[in-house]
Amino acid sequence: MANGEQVDRAALNKFDQKLYAPSWLAERQVAVCALCLACKLSSKLQKQLVQDTVITKSDNSPVSVADFAVQALVIHWIKRAFPNDGFIAEEDSTALRKDNSLLQSVTEAVNSVLSIDDSLIPSEVCDLLDLGNRPVASPKDRTWLLDPIDGTKGFLRGEQFCTALALVESGIVRVGALGCPNLPMSPTSSTSTSGSKVGCIFHAAQNAGAVMQEVERGAETFPIHVSDISDPAWATFCESWEPGHSSHELSKQIAKILGVSNDSIRMDSQCKYGILARGEASIYFRFPREGYQENVWDHAAGSIIIGEAGGMVTDGTGQALDFSKGRKLWNRGGIVATNGRLHTAVINVVRHVLQL
Ligand SMILES: Nc1ncnc2c1ncn2[C@@H]1O[C@H](COP(=O)(O)O)[C@@H](OP(=O)(O)O)[C@H]1O
Ligand SMILES: [Mg+2]
């Protein structure tokens, strides 16, 4: 009986949390509006992309007009709605302040999706970019984590990329949204994809579930849920397109031990979290080379979307990810996301193979 009481109380607590938790409706709406504009801008720039607008950052990853323009645009949009909020974002204005022609291109790009009354001047673009320099989403703050173009390599190849946005409040991710302009609304493997609309936004808020919608303000939302597979043999896993970002060999080895026989889905960016959240894949493996430290903006939005769609995201040891410790994410043994049901089995194999 005592056990029964405990179970009831746990269920009641969960119910209470849902009933009294803030819905984050305004934040979610503003985030979706910002991502609709971001998708419009990034799609346009991907089509126009000229290789000579690509410069090299100190970490040697390619960065384009789109990275700067989308960051300035999204921060502008969020800041206007929530003036006291702070930001942790990937880019800053250093390169633009040294290159007037790049700054002009970025300013023109941002203004191309804003109304004339709302247009920005170059110095405002630089200032907006630099608002993204917060060192930590501390428990006292509300901080938006932003990756303007996640999957830059996919963007440059004309393939998948996304804009990722998450709100951390009191050290916890409360809202997450992924704008994926090139991802079809239907499963990418489905035979009906040809007729499917391309471009989707995934979004979620704590205790409010996860949804997917077309890239359009006020579009109908469809609740999404992870797959209900409980036997790894039936699972499909996804991983980075780039073997330099996540070891394909290691995922293959782990998948083999788990008995997974389906081919992996290789895809750039946090779109992978989107396809896992809607049940198209059941496992996401990320095993970077030793010493690589992940960025908080590369996983925060995806994590809440997976959690709210019924799945789980942890590091390779099964530890929850903590987005409140700085711009870098502390983790051991890479990052593993699953539909939840498979998590323990997958983590056991990862720990065994990596000797964690
Ligand atoms: N050597 C490396 N190992 C793992 N991840 C890396 C990496 N170099 C860059 N990345 C990260 O991988 C992200 C892309 O992930 P994916 O391979 O899943 O598309 C990049 O995001 P950006 O494209 O925003 O820079 C970057 O943060
Ligand atoms: Mg990224």
From TrEMBL:
Mg(2+) 2 binds at residue 90. The keyword Nucleotide-binding does not apply. It catalyses: adenosine 2',5'-bisphosphate + H2O = AMP + phosphate; adenosine 3',5'-bisphosphate + H2O = AMP + phosphate; 3'-phosphoadenylyl sulfate + H2O = adenosine 5'-phosphosulfate + phosphate. The keyword Transmembrane helix does not apply. One of its GO terms (biological process) is phosphatidylinositol phosphate biosynthetic process. Its cofactor is Mg(2+). Keywords: Hydrolase, Magnesium, Metal-binding. It is an enzyme of class 3 (hydrolase). SUPFAM superfamilies: Carbohydrate phosphatase. Its EC number is 3.1.3.7. GO terms for molecular function: 3'(2'),5'-bisphosphate nucleotidase activity; metal ion binding. Mg(2+) 1 binds at residues 147, 149-150, 298. Belongs to the inositol monophosphatase superfamily. This is 3'(2'),5'-bisphosphate nucleotidase. It comes from Galdieria yellowstonensis.
